[in-house]
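Reading is simple: the token line describes the chain's fold. The lines below illustrate.

. . .
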Amino acid sequence: MIFLASSLLSWGIVSYYSKTQAVPQFGGEYIEGIVGQPLYINPVISSSNSTNEDLVQLIFSSLLKYDSEGNLKNYLAESYEISDDKTLYTFHLRQDVVWHDGKPLTASDILFTINLISDPSYKSPLRYNWQGIETSLIDDFTLTFQIKSPYVGFLNNLTFGILPKHIWESVSPDKFTLTDLNLQPIGSGPYKYVSFQKDSTGNIISYKLTANLNFFEKKPFISKITFNFYSSDDSALAAYNQKEIMGINSLSPQKLNQIELSKGTRIYRLSIPRYFAVFFNQTKSFPLANDEVREALSYATNREAIIENVFSGNGFPVYSPFLPGMIGFEDNEKKEDFNLEKAEKILEENKWLKGEDGIRSKESKVLEINLFTTDWNELIQTAEILKEQWEKAGARINIRSLSISDVQQNYIQPREYEALLFGQTLGANPDLSSFWHSREKKDPGSNLALFGDDETDKLIDDGRIEFDNKKRAELYHDLQKKIAQEIPAIFLYSPEYIYPVNKKIRGIETKLLISPSRRFTDIANWYVKTQRVWK
């Protein structure tokens, strides 16, 4: 009888599980550790701080947003039309959106936010994107954008969060960064602010959000999200190992083996459209002004060794500013794979001869290069490996690692460097104008290699207004060839974004990140709890 009862019970359990399935259920909490401090949870001024941006992505919503594949999709926008000449965009808004305080969101809120961004008094990092654009209200749920000339990346500029006019219109520019609203925001996103806690020194140590049950898209499954803030990777990792948090916003690949809860952790390795390179300022260095030196240094660079030693293999080599999957990427273009013998041969043939100390010189000019970078650990390690690799070819390399603010203010802005190891993030639209157009050679431009002439500028400008992807790719192929020929920089790698999360958190499907903060793009699909329902 006991055997029969056990058999019937087992059969019942097996039958139940075979005829039902687990589905996400509302409830549970996710606690994430972030290295950094929130200052302005305000989409108008948040983009210069990744911690701010993390919270903005959850609390605010935008006209358009990126999906888990990195493609644009409607968000606050219900639909939009583009005029035949590609200069007039008409947007129709959803009419079921309310702010966290229950007030309706309308087109006037979007116009208000754009006016703040465009006004230099508010010092928005997004202001550049809105120069010369005329925004007009048609009715409460319709507005238009008139741009002066076609631009293929305009829609990507519509992914910023919207502020509520009725909350912010009384805040003057001089109080904009001082108001408590920057830490106690009201938005229209999937989660809303609850509270935050400070320590005795005034630093925020935790920040709590709750699910927005009136969210205009699907209601999030996870009911509470808490962020705990740490001063270093090591302290965040220690908190994870002690089960104080369930995820870390980003982790160095070299620290992956320090996760003690490896069996209960899922490591998400996500792609971001960014690359790191050594940018050359040929006006500040006699050796680097010689084409053969730059070519030889490129052949002397073992990218795979750098990726393995610095990122434990979590990344891929890069040979141009065009990354795989981008319009214009061409894997067959000229690229200098590691070949030390060829590097030395190029230098020998061009009369760069080795002295007794192994360092080359030509016409009494020593092949000596000052390499600047920031004090980010991975970049310091990269610089040390480059020094070792390039010195084998006969170059003397002097490394100077400084704080990011020091590098920006004293070297990048005045362009006072010979070689600069630095990174650039491209965004969703491969518009290279800010990084490679000749008009961006001087500060505040970001053309760190001081590259460009009339020919390359035209390729970039034509690419900005070409909506036919095939024709645009042809323009970018030509630009890629030009960059490969001139070697204004040595492109190194694109590291993966490492995101460790407890396996209890399910539903994370993101594959491509436009930026690290966009990891929350599908947050409404994440879940902790489940319930079984009949199939």
